[in-house]
What does this fold into?
Amino acid sequence: MSTTSLTIPDLAGKAVLITGASTGIGAALAVGFAAQGAKVGLHYNSSVDAAEAVAQTIRDAGGTVELIRADATKADAMVEAVNAAQQAFGHLDGLINNAGGMVARQPYADWTSELYDQIMDLNARSVLAASHAAIPHLKVNGGFIINTTSIAARNGASNGAGLYGSSKAFIANVTRGMAKELIAFDIRVNAVAPGVISTPFHERYSTDAQMQAALGMIPQGRLGVAEDCVGTYLFLASKAMSSYIIGQTIEVNGGQLMP
It folds into this structure.
């Protein structure tokens, strides 16, 4: 049974902005939350056709979706994206900070300020900007923020992905800090750390040999798919299911890392 076939009543009618939702995990989340009756703000930037396709899938299933285009590397653009979601639905109940990427593989020995800025703007600054903009809206009725970090945040990454992994480690700690501060406003903050998930991310940045090497370290014996992650986000979004869970990072990696 797929996670989207399960009914989580307290998600129906919730307005949720999902950043980076045109492909991969974000796209699966958009479809999954819409299937629960949530109103989905589907953020994207360059992948126009893919975003339209995901939105059409949601509409065809009777769901509610608003396409919101913004450059995740620009703080002002992410503020506008959050406000656009709130204006579209009249309220905002949740934010999923999923936008991110490796940008490029670069060993620490070849470190450059330019790549550092690109990686941190995309993976870190976007989370801070979107979350800051969302807080006033989420305070109204309480709500949630779920950040997407990575297995690379815990294992140091490899093969030139160290800066990416470090940016995700930053997000893991931001999650803990925000959780402590925002629970006073009934805003629950947690994170999900996907392992090796077969998405356009790895199609772009990982070779077949790298993927096969990763597969050899996964006890479950297979690479993950985007849909493997959806249930964890739904669980953390549901106050009925996870009201006493804050500041946690849930690993979704087939057993590759067991902290």
